[in-house]
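WARN retry 2 of 3 for item q-0093 after timeout on previous attempt; input resubmitted unchanged.
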Amino acid sequence: MTKKITIGLTLLFFGIHIGVIHQATQAQIPTPVAPPTTKTICPAQLATSVNSIINRPLFSRVRWGILVQSLSSEQPLYSRDAQKYFTPASNTKLLTTAAALQQLGTNFRIRTSIYQDDNGILRVVGRGDPSLSDTQLQALAKQLKQQGITQISQLAVDDSYIQGDIVNPTWQWEDVQSDYGAPISSFILNENIFTFKLVPQAIGKPLQVIWTDPNEAKQWGIINQSMTVTQNSKPINVTRDLRGFLLRIQGQLAANSESYLVTLPVVDPNYYFLRRFRTVLATEKISLGQTLVVPGGNNQQEIAAVDSPPLSELVTETNVNSNNLYAEALLRALAFKQPNLHNKNTADIGLEVLKASLIKLGVDPTTYILVDGSGLSRRNLVSPEALVQTLQGMAKTPAASVYRASLPVAGKSGTLKNRFRNTPAEGIVQAKTGTLSGAVSLAGYINGTSYEPLVFSIMVNQSEQSASMLRQAIDEIVVLLTQLQRC
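OK item q-0093 returned
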């Protein structure tokens, strides 16, 4: 049995403590919830009840942004700095996925193709499919084999579909060097991460490094300063230099402890794809000669292709599991139908399309400023008003049910699975979480039993309190909202 551990990799060999992190901007730690209650609240009492939570002394230095409205009304039931900007964290994904569904449609798929030119050279065209895995590579290899191809003298990858930085320049170092900040490009394979295990050995010996993919082992030099101990082990710490060639492993594991699974982002997505594809082709007994990266070319004879799942499924993975890589891929997918503009980043074009799409939904473009699609950047600025307008606007579209179904359900799924259990909110709240250092947010829909459907946005910024403490307060407010009734 293994534990997954995500490594913060920093400048040169400046190590940081490693914590267990999952795919959201940061892990959604199980939060204490309010006890079940049959209490009911009249709308006139809501302000007093909410204020009693956010005005507690421990929140005296915290910025709160809150907006609660009926799904079909623009009249607020509660508002607190709803027009002001906040760092939204992964609530940004609500805007990205709304625009993607509007612009591309629920059945849109991202295609990865292999073309053959007149000289017999094969060219793979990647278009940024975030779901591409070794399974799809196997499907491509089988298609080639079915066409009688047993030898490829030259294979080129065309990475020109997505232009610009493979990681957002505004992301922090620990994000860029962690699996939840993996690079985004035309080629995304296995979510552009790779893994290895650290396994305890005899006491006093370094931990054994066992690579999941032997090809990746050849890409790295390792300075192994770890140790197997009897007990009271020290946290594992893995750092790398800026060039991406050398790993330093430090820390201790007890001899009888479980192994650790270290997850790292790939350095060069193109060559990672080529290494994996060479291995997969070999399983089909297809020999591969020279490989190279050649942007552009003629897409004349497609001889193999795989498609991503429909956008409805990609959006669900994005929101339910707060998958940053999927969100960034969808942002770039927004640029697919736009003119190919030279010297302009695909992500920037995507942000322009996102804004135009949200305007059609009725979202005021002055209520937010985005620099990425996932919410990992601390430079994103979003108001509660923008999120509520997005939620209300999407409820009126043909994709309303798909959008809503993509959100975690309180106490049931995704990043809300461990929240709101045994409360009136369980099962009737569908909402998107968001967490960064000092910033916690939640926005979504409430189907109460005694009141009309609600939309809400709650954002907390500039807090020294723990994320779990902030989530507990947010959850108390949401539980109050589920107890509204007409009086």
